[in-house]
Write a structure and sequence with these properties.
Layout lengths: L1 E7 L3 H19 L3 E6 L5 E6 L4 H10 L8 E8 L6
Antiparallel strand pairs: 1-3, 1-4, 2-3
Amino acid sequence: MWMIELGFTPAPERLAARPAHREVLSGLHSRGVVRMAGPFADDSGAVIIVDAQDRGAVDAILTADPYFSTTGVTVVHIREWHPFLR
């Protein structure tokens, strides 16, 4: 699994792009690719947990969703994660 941490600014572009981004994540969730996703309580960023085979697969997800290159969205960290509880 992989953990993607995002950082946000209040840019209007980000807020305008968010509904389409959430649709993409919902589709990936229904296929079991995105396990969890959501913003921090203060809306300063978000975490997305992805079940992907390798970093290349994670990068493909990021490339396919224009939200990740939208003004006001920064990919802060991408880390491989080995949960022991699921």
